[in-house]
Design goal:
The protein has 713 residues and is of the alpha+beta class. It has three domains: 73 residues, no CATH class; 203 residues, no CATH class; 255 residues, no CATH class. It is 46% helix and 12% strand. Strands 1-3-2-4 form a four-stranded antiparallel sheet. A four-stranded antiparallel sheet has the order 19-20-21-22. A three-stranded antiparallel sheet has the order 5-7-6. Helix 11 crosses helix 13, helix 14 packs antiparallel against helix 15 and helix 18 crosses helix 32. The longest helix is centred in the last third of the chain and has 23 residues. The protein is globular. It starts with a helix and ends in a 5-residue tail after the last helix.
């Protein structure tokens, strides 16, 4: 021990000299001079990049990382001209990645909300018909602002951003005229506040830029842009420096002509850059990530996903712990209730046994519920999510905070708005209003008395077992109840062959001959309970609401990374309970800034930002290096891996549990719809035989027959 301490103090450090320096400071022989700088001293680099456990204070890691981003430009500059100059290819790449590339009007609206506005030149790269859709819906407009030459410089804005723009340019012309939503119009913006918010969004797409360029884009004075940038710098949002060759080249030219003052002036051009973009540019510059993270094709990405989600036979799991790991991957994903045990879970395990899921549910590790509560007519088709119970509140909070939109029909949209205003406990009133029979009484009893066993609930409601089964089926379909175990859900999703029938427009009913067996299975379900509103909707203060809502989105962001490894907007098309991409993207940007995940371009053909776990990047590289083996893999059309037409090209395949989709080397080849096989790609006769053979295979292992019912082969 003594030797170790001595080595640290005398070999790694010159402790005696440090004592001497401190003594001289104490005697007044040395004078300390403090200087405020906009970037860390090279002497501070080691502590800035230290591991979190090296610090005893509670300074946020993100704060230190924000300063560490700037470290490179103060390290061993070869000349004043290239001090801080970044690789132009890296800058261009990040600008290209951040540039909006919306595929539809909704994505364009999200872009306008996120970045504040688009200039006319930037709008030319986007399909004009997308703007026309937003204009027709009064969700966007052209905002004409007079610039310094009293000319008109129009920009595109979303209706929600109108109050900020109006605070900066009062009385500007709108083409066409629209009004801001009431929730946004209620806030009064000062001119300075509005400029800060607009430039905050602007900086997320432009990369390194100058205050003059930002001021010109918004037609404000350079001094106003400088003040806003200083405010953003104090928040740690942006960093200043000399990043591009606009500083070096003019200086070199001036020096050649003998003008030292011109060179000095050129080197003093200050640029500004969004912190997360600058961090990415630094990584690309230092590590040449273009070669390191070479994007994979959609087919290779699908091959990677089959291994990542354990559908590839070589990666399947076994046992209760294996099933728990699979649920952790599929955490919160909604799909048809009947598909979970018929196809989705068996596809990921060597030998799936329903008793393992019952065990995980009854021990409190796994739960099930419906995230959105628009009633369905067929119980087996009811979308049900499995989730780790520790994440239950997060999924419920996000699902209730961001309910899925109804159809585009104006009447239904108006109805949704009215119902949203009448929410009780975070759940729309229409789900309960649609209940029939004794389902209302059952729900009221569960809310009043808490969780009850099946026989207790039957006694409390004074109904027979068949009536209670019907009521529970209706409440499950409406997303209003759940149970401790999975056996109760398993019993009510067997379908008509097992005793459940559906009257047109009415609640599920039981055939008389199935009554005896059905309620016995319900006894194994454990307790039934009403789904409680999430803490997000019941907290005491708005600040707590905001904190808990943010925590829920962060948890969901990590869940999506567990599910896919790589996340981008299009991949979330089938995520019924996901928060809006703009909310998730903010979280991913913060995680990237902390170094916990990576941002970049990982899959070709996918627009917008992409984020990935470091281990997922390694798996992608392995997949790219591994040659395809020609093996066919079959999944249910309800499986999360039904990404045909989403990640891969071609038409989408409806997520119907009974349909089966076959992939070959990551390419969707055909789908079996009932007894009809529909090709999705061109293939040879030999490949056709393999596809047909794969589709003719058994959809689930024999052990499930006793639990789920007969399956046609």
């Amino acid at each position: 021990m003594n030797q170790t301490v001595r080595d640290c103090l005398e070999e790694a450090m010159d402790f005696n000299q440090l004592i001497d320096v401190l003594a001289r400071i104490h005697r007044g022989e040395l004078t300390l001079v403090s200087r405020d700088t906009v970037e860390p001293s090279p002497l501070a680099h080691e502590i800035l990049n230290a591991r979190p456990y090296a610090f005893l204070d509670d300074a946020p890691l993100e704060e230190r990382r924000a300063h560490a981003v700037q470290s490179r430009r103060a390290t061993d500059p070869s000349s004043a001209g290239d001090l801080g100059a970044l690789d132009q290819a890296a800058i261009d790449r990040v600008r290209d990645e951040a540039r909006p590339d919306p595929r539809d009007a909704d994505e364009l609206h999200d872009v306008l909300l996120t970045i504040g506005f688009l200039t006319e030149d930037e709008a030319r790269s986007i399909a004009a018909e997308l703007f026309e859709v937003l204009i027709a819906a009064k969700r966007a407009t052209r905002f004409h602002i007079p610039n310094s030459n009293f000319q008109i410089a129009p920009i595109w804005i979303a209706a929600e951003r109108l109050p900020e723009l109006s605070a900066v340019h009062a009385g500007a012309a709108l083409e066409p005229h629209i009004d801001a939503p009431a929730s946004r119009a209620a806030r009064t913006w000062t001119r300075d506040e509005a400029i800060v918010e607009l430039l905050r969004g602007r900086l997320t797409i432009v990369g390194p830029t100058t205050a003059h360029a930002l001021a010109a884009s918004l037609s404000i004075a350079d001094a106003e842009a400088d003040a806003a940038l200083l405010a953003l710098e104090s928040e740690g949002v942006v960093l200043r420096g000399r990043f591009t060759t606009i500083n070096a080249e003019p200086a070199e030219s001036a020096e050649k002509h003998g003008s030292a003052s011109s060179a000095s002036s050129a080197l003093n051009v200050v640029e500004w850059c969004d912190r997360r973009l600058l961090a990415r540019i630094h990584r690309y510059t230092l590590h040449r990530l273009r070669a390191e993270i070479e994007p994979v094709s959609p087919a290779d990405f699908m091959r990677y996903l089959f291994a990542w989600q354990h559908v590839d036979p070589a990666t399947r799991l076994a046992g209760v712990e294996g099933l728990r790991a699979i649920v952790a991957v599929l955490d919160g994903f909604e799909l048809a209730a009947s598909a979970w045990e018929k196809s989705v879970l068996p596809a990921r395990m060597d030998r799936y046994d329903p008793s393992m899921l019952d065990m995980l549910c009854l021990t409190g590790e796994v739960g099930w519920a419906r995230g959105n509560n628009d009633p369905t007519d067929v119980v087996g088709a009811t979308p049900i999510a499995l989730f780790l119970r520790e994440h239950a509140d997060a999924w419920t909070a996000v699902a209730q905070a961001f309910p899925p939109p109804l159809a585009s029909d104006a009447t239904r949209a108006s109805a949704r708005l009215a119902e949203a205003l009448e929410r009780e406990g975070g759940r729309p009133a229409h789900a309960e209003a649609a209940l029939k029979g004794c389902a209302t009484a059952v729900l009221a009893t569960l809310r009043q008395r808490g969780a009850l066993f099946f026989h207790e609930l039957a006694s409390a409601c004074n109904v027979d077992d068949a009536q209670l089964c019907t009521a529970i089926a209706e409440l499950v379909a409406a997303g209003l109840v759940t149970s401790d175990g999975f056996a109760g859900l398993r019993a009510i999703v067997r379908g008509p062959a097992d005793g459940l029938r559906q009257g047109y427009g009415g609640p599920p009913k039981l055939h008389a001959k199935a009554e005896a067996g059905r309620h016995r299975n319900q006894a194994a379900a454990g307790r039934w309970s009403a789904i409680a509103p999430a803490a997000l909707n019941t907290s005491a203060t708005p600040k707590r609401d905001e904190r808990e809502g943010e925590a829920a989105i962060v948890q969901q962001a990590w869940a999506l990374l567990r599910r896919y490894g790589v996340v981008f907007r299009r991949l979330l098309t089938r995520e019924a309970n996901a928060a809006p991409w703009r909310e998730l993207a903010r979280v991913y940007r913060r995680l990237e800034a902390r170094g916990e995940i990576r941002g970049g371009r990982f899959v070709t053909g996918m627009s917008g930002e992409q984020f990935a776990r470091p281990d997922a990047i390694e798996r992608l590289r392995e997949t790219r290096r591994t040659a395809p083996n020609g093996r066919c893999l079959v999944v249910s059309a309800a499986d999360p891996l039904n990404l045909a037409g989403i990640v891969t090209s071609g038409d989408r395949v409806r997520a119907v549990a009974a349909n089966r989709l076959v992939y070959r080397d990551g390419v969707p080849m055909a789908v079996l719809e009932g007894e009809f096989m529909r090709p999705l790609a061109d293939f040879t006769a030999a490949a056709a035989a393999e596809v047909t053979t794969a589709l003719a295979g058994r959809p689930m292992p024999p052990v499930l027959g006793g639990y789920i019912g007969s399956i046609s082969h």
